[in-house]
Amino acid sequence: MRAHNAYLKRQLEQISDFVNNNGGHSIPSVNSLASTSSNPHFSYGTSSNRPLEPPSLEREQYTHEHINNAQPTQHFQPLSQMEKMMMSQTMVNAVTEIIRLIHIEEPMWIKSSIDDRLVIDQENYEKSFTNISHLKSPSARIESSKDVVVVPMDARNLVDMFFDTEKWARIFSTIVNEAKTIHVLESMDTQRQNFSQLMYEQLHILSPLVPPREFIILRCCQQIEDDLWVIADVSCHHVNIDFESPTCSKRPSGCLIQALPNGLSKVTWMEHVEVNEKVRTHRIYRDLLCGGFGYGARRWTVTLERMCERLHLSSISVFPTTDFAGVVETIEGRRSVMNLGERMLKNFAWILKMSGNYDFSQLSETNSSGVRVSVRVNSEAGQPTGLIVCAASSICLPLSPLEVYNFLTNLEIRHQWDVLCHGYPAAEVAGFATGTDDKNRVNILQTASTAEDADMMIIQDSFRDALGGMVVYAPVDLNTASAAVSGQVNPSGIPILPSGFIISRDGHHFTSPELEDGSDYSKSLLTVAFQILVSGPTLSGDLQIEESTTTVNTLITSTLQRIKVMLNCNEGK
């Protein structure tokens, strides 16, 4: 510890000399910086003091294929040397706090009375750490959680994913709506993979009823042992940002990544956030959000595990026994279909933000949300060109997520609720597993229909996990389907317009997904969203948008009604 503190003092003296020679700003005391280290393996390199060219962060047109790199509307000025100094100290403190919190058990971590997950005991926390609360509202609350998972990905590749916002948003596309690096404070050290950066991120729950959460955060990575890295995120309040008053502030959060044999990694994840929603949460999502379950560590680890399994399976060079190759004859075709399914999931998650929507509120407030409708003109590759109408609605069902998922993926009864089937049964003509659970798969479906729509197929990607699941699908013509299965066409350019369902637990108390008698008595929140191409590239002046929105509203309400009848949930349950 003495040697390490001496090292910190030398680093601070170098920074002090630089600052004094470039403006004469005051600096924190040596003791305040040196005392932040409490781990003999912990090392923190100082941020680069080279002048940085600030990137323009004006919002520009962006494709839905790159929405995860989209730029926020805020404008950022170049960082002053004092701001860099304060950020450096904030990151040192955040890394140290995360290491301590992850290794401490009781009494710092206690079981939640809501769902038995581990949460921070705030009384003990305040005795050990001196974080300033940045949300002064009396209605502000604290969310905290911790979870552990082992994933099939090399630790160094995982660390690289945290540094690259495009990879980060791809892995967590069902959580991260937008991500953008604002300033690189310390570039990636290729040998030890140390880095630090200032970034913007927008997180969301997959329902138009829940507004996204926005953060300006400092992200820091430090390798603390040969096989161990710490990733720290903490909200940044040091810079002059033209940013709307925040409704969330991230206390030191992040994860420890430990390399394991055979290309595996153990990830210990913790989240610690202050929240003050400006708009009262819709009642059907209130328990999920206010209980801290919606954005908790478990959601991140479950998503990470599922996506690592998917990336592993998509990279193999043979057809596994869980696959049904069917009409797909080559590995390249298999990979193309899996990439197309992943893109469908990402695009479907993006549309549920639904800014500038219309509301149809004739459904009941208690167990449903009404229908939200949004209209956009698309001119980008990867989706049909023209006017697109999207409608979405969320309802609460007195059934477990697994029951709802099994219903939606049952091909024998699909024709009774899916208008794309035109009343005819659907059959799988190819299917590929995307996870260790063989229920997680991308399928190509065909209906036994009459000649008028025999040239249509359905591509579907679905998964289930401990928190719920998704079923996303899109109709494609035979030419598009042939291009996808051939493997000779870049799937990112194949135009496709996904619709589908998101299934989530309602956030009420449950002891385990499977109780002692093998049953799951939790309820489900079901969000359904449909997209329809109203007109082609040439928009006529007499286009009746209101008529189109009414049509898609009718479609979504009638589909939900059929589903509720089939599930015996039609009496306002």
UniProtKB/TrEMBL annotation:
The keyword Ligase does not apply. CDD domains: START_ArGLABRA2_like (cd08875). Keywords: DNA-binding, Homeobox, Nucleus, Transcription, Transcription regulation. InterPro entries: HD-Zip_IV, HD-Zip_IV_C, START-like_dom_sf, START_lipid-bd_dom. Residues 29-50 have a biased composition (Polar residues). Residues 80-313 form the START domain. This is START domain-containing protein. It comes from Brassica napus (Rape).
